[in-house]
Amino acid sequence: MKKLYLIILLMLSVSLKNFAQKDTSDLITTGQQVPSFSFEIEKGKTVSINDYKGKLVLINLFATWCPPCNEELPLAQKDIWDKHKDNPHFAFFVFGREQDWAKVLPFKEKKGFTFPILPDEGRKIYSLFAKSFIPRNYLVDENGKIIYQSMGFSTNEFQKLVQIIDQHLKNN
């Protein structure tokens, strides 16, 4: 009887481990082409992500109320945007999931961010990338291929993103 309990416990732990390792919230992964979408770069002016082919593009998906997002964005300002904003081969877009201009503009001003913070009402953009969880980062190369992605915020993961951007732009 003890053997049977041990076998059941072992099978259960293997099943739980496999379940925990499967993240089904991603709809797109590294190595795939970035989905095609249009967005307002400023009120009344719409562009396509395809307009940015030929550039390294960082897409950040966040919400103003999200604590990890609010921890990550000041670092993005300092460690990414301030360093690369004048590089013609780089673009950075931060999309506020389910938020409109009336929400993102005051947030941007209050926090003193200078990078583009844009609305994503109705999760139109977010839903192309994921089902749940923020913040998320997608780094897209000059050919439109996703070369890095992250979910959530950790200092180590963020530093990895910074290093990839720095190295990529140094080589181009």
How are the strands ordered across the major sheet? 5-4-3-6-7
Structural class of the helix and strand makeup? alpha/beta
H-E string: HEEEHEHEHEEH
Outline the biggest β-sheet: 5 strands, mixed
Could you report the average pLDDT, rounded to the nearest whole number? 88
Proportion of helical residues: 40-55%
Radius of gyration: 19 Å
Distance between the termini: 65 Å
Number of helical regions: 5
- CATH class type: Alpha Beta
Share of β-strand residues = 15-25%
Question: Mind explaining what this structure looks like?
Answer:
With 172 residues, the protein is α/β, with parallel strands linked by helices. The protein has a single domain (25-171), classed as 3-Layer(aba) Sandwich (Glutaredoxin). It has 5 helices and 7 strands. The protein has helices spanning 2-21, 67-84, 101-111, 126-129, 155-171; strands at 38-42, 45-48, 56-62, 90-97, 117-120, 136-140, 146-151. Strands 5-4-3-6-7 form a 5-stranded mixed sheet. Helix 2 runs parallel beside helix 5.
